[in-house]
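#structure-requests
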Amino acid sequence: MVAKRYQSPSGGLNAAGRAHFKSKGHNLKAPTKSKTSGRRKSFCARSKGWKSERGLAARRKWNC
């Protein structure tokens, strides 16, 4: 589980969280709000069934 200090209240990870995971070898990117972004479309399709509070917050942040 990710420590709360790395979670954004509006959903997803904050910049400190992305930096933390980058130091461990991961390459996480911030949410994109561009309607033409393939990455956004892919995320929205994958997360369609998310019903938890955090999942719904993440989907709002991505404009799904």
